[in-house]
Amino acid sequence: MKRILVGIKRVVDANVRIRVKPDGSGVLTDGVKMAINPFDEIALEEALRIKERGGAEEIIVASVGPADCQQQLRTALAMGADRALHVQADGVVEPLTVARTLLKLIEREQPFLVILGKQAIDDDNGQTGQVLAALWNRPQATYASKLELSGESARVTREVDAGLETIEVDLPAVITTDLRLNEPRYVKLPDIMKAKKKPLDTLTFAALGVEPRQQLKLTRFEPPPQRQKGIRVKDAAELIDALRKKGLL
Question: What Cα–Cα distance (Å) separates residue 5 from each residue in 11, 106, 126, 137, 166?
Answer without folding.
Answer: 19, 8, 18, 16, 23
